[in-house]
Every structure is written in structure tokens, then in C-alpha cells.
Fold this protein.
Amino acid sequence: MTTPLSFRQSVDHMVQHAMSVLDLDPGLRDVIRTCNSVIQVRFPVKLHGKIHTFKGWRATHSTHRLPVKGGIRYAPYADQDEVEALAALMSYKCALVDVPFGGSKGALQIDPSQYDRDDMELITRRFATELIRKGFMNPATNVPAPDMGTGQREMAWMAGTYKHLFPDDINHQACVTGKPVHHGGIRGRVEATGRGVQYALQEFFRHPGDVAGAGLGGGLEGKRVVIQGLGNVGYHAAKFLSEEDGVKVIAVIEREGVLLNPDGIPIQHLRDHMVEHKTIRSFPDADFEEDGRKALELECDILIPAAMEGQIDEQNCDRIQAKMIVEAANGPVSFGADQKLQARGMVILPDVYVNAGGVTVSYFEWIRNISHIRFGRMQRRHDEQRASQYATLLQEITGARLSEDRRNSVIRGADEIDLVRSGLDDTMRLAYQEMRNTLLGSEQIHDLRTAAYVIAIGKIARSYHDVGIY
Ligand code: NAD
């Protein structure tokens, strides 16, 4: 039996497959594929009188654009191979959605559930200090963000640590993204990745031919969804898709098992239950079963893996019955499984596209930080005044009268969250259309993942060509 590929090898095989379609200099292929640099840090932290040693990594995959960008993951199983794979995905993701950053990723080997809040603060600040000192965290060159096991809280501690060390850096807030709004964050970042998953699916369903290609018809309304992982990404995606687009989430798979309800699981209610009880077992509005992994094989319209990598592999891929897979997590389908599923004609919206909403809104946050002004602050009232004048003019010309409510909604100027959503929606729509056109325009490309990589690699290669290699 052949040894299964590691996550990094799996991503590399997908990239090489896309490169075989492109006419690239072999040397340039290697430059693009390989990870530029990776550091491993080990550092001690004294907790409750006892010294603990922690191990972490930060990898920089491609520096064709600066800063490099990518989340920091806290997980007990984190390792260097995973960090390098995730850093590579970040380079391609940023290129695909025209976010002008290179790719990076970091991880700390830790189980956050074993430590209290104060411990986590000490550990995070110490880890940030290591990254900053070694040049792997800086507003101009390397900007982390949240990933599995981290969120606004950790980003605030990291930003605070950087500011403490470099109070004279006027752009200190831009050293990480995903911060709380009152600490330089941007409205809409917390839910951005899940919102991006929703926008990706909305765009897919705007193309009836593509929907038919997946063996589906009509719109999103009533589609049966199975989702794995109800964390940041999974919760927001499931919430928006069920509450705003009318999909039916018939199964939620979590670490401890799966909840099933053919009529649809109320996502907000389930999330509240998880926060309060720290388990899904006792949730009253669905049936619980222990074997969560088996539930990936349930018959459904859309399967959304939103937990972690390697969930659909060569062992279980033949039993997947979903009509389409939407990769909200990074690397949920292995290279081998991907090949088999593509051969079956399965439509897969790839991770480099689907979960790009997070880095897109992180880009908006970084711009907000270096420009030191909230989006919409200068023009909102001006736009309202102009719209009000037009509305008055329209009423005078036509003699019609707008109700107070109607008038207010017509003249309302966009605030930050409106602009963030508009920018994210535009990004997800354009990237899907570019992938689709690439797929339809080539006889050598047969799937959206290869199309996504071909676009991303082409853009990175062009950037090396323009600037040169020195
Ligand atoms: P998270 O830690 O908030 O949530 C992960 C959820 O998955 C948790 O509820 C966890 O209990 C569950 N889970 C973990 N292992 C599981 C398993 N084997 N089976 C079932 N459930 C499991 O993490 P997140 O930020 O939502 O990230 C999820 C995925 O999305 C990761 O692959 C991450 O790299 C990717 N991603 C996240 C972001 C972001 O902005 N947070 C952006 C892009 C991609």
C-alpha cells in the first residue's frame, strides 16, 4: 500500500497538475512552488510557578508581494508540514482574488482548552515576541490573522505586544488583522470567511448551466446542506445560508459526533447551545449520533467541510453522495480523493476560492489601518445629501411623494459594513467568473480547482517576470 501524501505534498501535487497546463520556465515553477522560509521557535512560559515549553512555526511561502499574509493556528497536532501547506495556499488564494499580498501561515502546538485566559495571554504575547524579533511579524512585511483556535482576542494581544515593542511605528495597528473593532479591527471581519462562502455559493447559483452540471436545479432555497465544523467559518456560513438563502442544514458534524434533522437545524439556536453547554450532544432539536465522519457520506445537495484538512481522502471519497462539495476549510479534500471525485464529475468549489473572504476583508482592515481612517467616514454624509437632493428633484418633477421610510432607505449613505460586504461580494463574484471563463476557455482544464491554480500561478509568474528575479 502506498503511503498517503502529507497535506503539503497534496497541495504541491495539485499545483504541479495546474503547472502542467501552463508554459512556464522550469526554474520559475520551482521558485513559485517552494516555501521561501520557515522558522521554528521554542520558548518557555512560566505558568502558575511551573515552566512550560511551547513550539511554534511561521512559514513564508512567496514574497512576490509584501506584506505576506496568513493566519495563525493554535492546535495540538500542528506541525511544520501543515504550516508550509497552508502558507502555499495563502499565496495562491491572494493571487486568485487580487489581494496584493504574498502567502504565509503560522501555528502554535497547543490545546487551548487546557489553559485559562491569563495563561493564553502570556503564551500568545510570548509567541508574538518571538515572531516579531525574528522578523516574522511586521506591518510592512508579515501580517498574521486568526485561524483555527485563534480569534480577535489573540490578535489584540499580538497587536498590543508589537505596539509595546515599537511604539514609534505609526502603522503598528497594521501588524495583524482580525482585531476587535475598538482596537483597529474592521466591521465584518469576524464573519468574513463564512460570508465569503455564502457569496461564493450565491455566485455559483447565478449560472444555471453550472448548477445543472452539478446535477442540481433552481436556486439555493431548499437545498439540503451537510456541514462539518461549527466554528468561526462553519457557523457563519451555515447561519447566513440558512437564514438568508433558505438552505436546509440537515446535518452538523462536530468533533464529538453529528446532529441530524431532515427538516433543518436552527443554526443560531445550536450555536447558543454549544456556547452554553460546551457540547452538541444534548441539543434538543436534532438527533445525535457518535460517528461524525460517516455523516460526510450522507446523501445531500451540498457538502461543506469547514473544519480541517484531509477529511475526504481515498478511503471515504467513493462513498461521498453529495452533489457538490464547497471547501470552506483549507485542504479538506486530499489530492488522491480530488482526482477520483473529479473523474466522477463531482463539482468542487476549491478552498483557494471559497474561503478567500477572510483574507479579502483582512486586506480591507490593513488598508484601514495604514490609512488611519474608517471606510465611509469622509463621504457618507456627502452621498446622503446628494441623494436627498436627487430624491427631492424627482418628487418635484414627477409630483409623486416618497414615504418617509422609503426616502430614508433611498438616500442612506454606505457605512463601513456596507462597503466591506460590497467589496467582498464583488471579489467573490469576479473570482468565480474568472475561474469559470478559464475553465470554459481551455480544453486542458477540466475542473475549477485547476482553473483557480492556473489563474493564481499565472499572476504570480507575471509578477516575477515584471520585477525580475535577483
Ligand atoms: P475554528 O477553530 O473556529 O472552528 C473549527 C471547528 O471545527 C470547531 O468547532 C471544531 O470543534 C470543529 N472540528 C475540528 N476538528 C473536527 C473534526 N475532525 N470533525 C468535526 N469537527 C471538527 O476554526 P475556523 O477558523 O472556523 O477554521 C476552520 C477551517 O477554515 C480551517 O481549515 C481554517 O484553516 C479555514 N479558514 C479559516 C479562516 C478564518 O478566517 N478563520 C479563513 C480561511 C480559512
The longest helix spans residues 416-440. The chain has a mean pLDDT of 96. The pocket of nicotinamide-adenine-dinucleotide is lined by residues 146-149, 193, 228-234, 253-255, 292, 306-308, 328-330, 355, 358 (CB under 6 Å). The first strand starts at residue 37 and ends at 47.
